Amino acid sequence: MPGDTDIATVGALLGDERRCRILLALDDGRALPASRLAAEAGVSAATASSHLGKLREGGLVTVETHGRHRFYRLAGPHVGRLLEAMVALAPPRPVTSLREGTRARALRRARTCYDHLAGELGVGIMRHLVDAGLLAGGDGRRDPADPPVGFGQDVDYRFTGAGDAWLDDLGVRLAPGRRAVRYCVDWTEQAHHLSGAAGAGILARLVELDWVRRAPKDRAVTVTDAGRAGLARTFGL
């Protein structure tokens, strides 16, 4: 008969800074090779392989094999939510260089939260959808019953008829078998951003339009020149 949950097992996995760097590198939902993750963690390929093995055994990452190459990704959005909650609780690193300050500002402006947009951009898109009557059920603000970060539970957002038409016009495709609308409490903005199939679909479409581009090494997202015009026209941003 199993006993109480052993959170110390997960805590031990997350207690190593190099493993945390690997997990954060995967927090945008992409699958990355071990060589890239070794560089992110600042360790050798053999050391990265050892850390990845422990993360696999702990159920935090999975591996995909393509020919001779192995790619790693988070085991699912539940791991992304765990990381976001930890980011919100963890003390900030001191900014000791212009590069680190630039990166911190970029993450606050626009970043991925697993497979959808977060930061000022993600919250701005959510606010537009609510204000334009495309998304009903809430006002985009953090509810008193919401957690300080992670998936919210108490606001029943749903797209209106106009919202469904808007998604079609923009060319957003929703993954079948997945809840269309969920929301997260954004840890930097303390407001709601859109997740679920719609959140993932909007990010995928904006990348497809080349309005936003994922940063090669972290969760930051940059807005292109075409994106500035498109986001202003589509979301009033």
TrEMBL record:
SMART domains assigned to the protein according to its UniProt record, in alphabetical order: HTH_ARSR (SM00418)
Domain HTH arsR-type: residue ranges: 1-94
Pfam families per UniProt: HTH_20
Matching NCBIfam families: HTH_metalloreg
Protein name: ArsR/SmtB family transcription factor
Organism whose genome encodes this protein: Pseudonocardia lutea
